[in-house]
Amino acid sequence: MSQAAISIQGIRKSFGKLQALKGIDLEIQRGEFFGLLGPNGAGKSTLISTIAGLVVPDGGKVEVLGNDTVKNYRHARRNIGVVPQEVVYDPFFTVEEVIRNQAGYFGVRDMGGWLDELLDALELDDKRDANMRQLSGGMKRRVLIAQALAHRPPIAILDEPTAGVDVELRRSLWEFTRRLNGEGMTVVLTTHYLEEAEELCDRIAIIHNGAVQALDTKDALLARDTTRSLCVTLEDAAARIPETLTPFLADRDGEEVHLRFNKEEHSPVELLNRFQEAGVAVKDLHTFSPSLEDIFRSLTGEHLSTEEVS
Ligand SMILES: Nc1ncnc2c1ncn2[C@@H]1O[C@H](COP(=O)(O)OP(=O)(O)OP(=O)(O)O)[C@@H](O)[C@H]1O
After folding, report:
1. Packing angle between helix 137-149 and helix 95-105, nearest 10 degrees?
2. How many angstroms is it from 208 CA to the middle of ligand 1?
3. pLDDT digits (tens, 9 = 90+) for 140-159
4. What is the pLDDT of residues 191-238, one digit of tens each?
5. In angstroms, rounded to a whole number, what is the distance separating the alpha carbons of residues 202 and 181?
6. Once rounded to an integer, what is the mean pLDDT over residues 63-82?
7. What's the whole-number mean pLDDT along residues 151-170?
8. Which residues touch 52 (CB under 8 Å, ≥6 apart)?
9. ABC transporter domain: from which residue to which, for each copy (predicted)?
10. Is 158 helix (H, G, I), strand (E, B) or coil?
11. Which of 245, 258, 266, 305 lies 20 to 30 Å from 55 when distance is taken between CA atoms?
12. Are 196 and 239 in contact (CB under 8 A)?
């Protein structure tokens, strides 16, 4: 079957005068690990809510495995598990009850071994009888993920699942989502962590001001920027930069010199030779390529990361 997992066609949504989504077209294929990136207020959560049928668009339509999210809400909704950004929970239930209730809501009475698998993968085994209010913030977040996946949907949508989560848990969540994706689940992830998108996603849509600014594979996005950097450490901190290299000079701090060049026109070896020709000795060097953060910044003019990834 060639049907897309999620087909988004011309979605528009305004809140009063604010146009949150200005006509979004996206097709997410089955089995993809898809990243939705954008700065705060770009429209990512509104788009996710539209896919989940929680927001009715002003125009356009979304289909989940061929089911229209408005006309055929129940079928569309059953095929997705949404992990919301906000941690909302019922304080009166235990972890196991919360997960079972959610499965029941989608008509799954017998979770079989899936409950244990979820609890194990999310490291919640010893918390299965704990009351939700007894859990730490990170644990509650893990329960939200288990809850969203309780009915074993073919598509998982994770809205910043690792925001505020410690490094170790973040790693284990990455592993788990990667495993689910490897088993055939389509995963859509919104994140502020470019490191996360770079590591996990096959294709990435960059959303800014309610519109798709770029949509491509991660590798193609990274290849768009042909700028490269060469950083050298000079033997002599007072040495003059050869004139042939001054057009490339991005920064200098004593013996540390940062050169920026276009890889299609120049090479690091050529630039190093220019030092040698001018008799300036180089004691160390390294090169680096632009990151998704650089590409993101050049497309949107904004930084994506609001927190440090430690
Ligand atoms: N229910 C609402 N009523 C009014 N304005 C809203 C509502 N929901 C979202 N908005 C506005 O729509 C725009 C897009 O918001 P949205 O939450 O979709 O962005 P986002 O990309 O998910 O941002 P973040 O990364 O901060 O979560 C924002 O300007 C937001 O203030």
Report:
1. 30
2. 12
3. 888 999 999 999 999 999 98
4. 877 788 888 999 999 999 999 999 999 888 888 878 889 999 999 999
5. 11
6. 94
7. 85
8. 69, 77, 80, 82, 157
9. 6-234
10. strand
11. 305
12. no
Closest CA to 142 of 110, 107, 166: 166
Nearest CA owner, ligand 1 atom 5? 15
Atom 29 in ligand 1: which residue has the minimum CA distance?
41
* Alpha-carbon gap, residue 286 to 201, rounded angstroms: 27
Residue 41 Cα to ligand 1 midpoint, Å, equals 5
pTM, full prediction? 0.82
Say if residue 80's pLDDT is above 50. yes
- Chain centroid, CA 48 distance in Å: 13
User: What are the residues facing 28 on neighbouring strands?
Assistant: 6
Residues at CB less than 6 angstroms from ligand 1 = 15, 18, 20, 38, 40-46
Question: What confidence tier does 308 reach under pLDDT thresholds 50, 70, 90?
Answer: very low
Mean pLDDT in residue range 115-129: 92
Q: What is the C-alpha separation between 204 and 198, in angstroms, rounded?
A: 9
Q: Give the tokens for residue 72.
A: 């055929």
Atom 16 (ligand 1) nearest CA? 43
Q: Which strand (E) or helix (H) includes residue 118?
A: helix 114-121
Token digits for 214?
Answer: 């770029």
| Count of residues making up the chain | 310
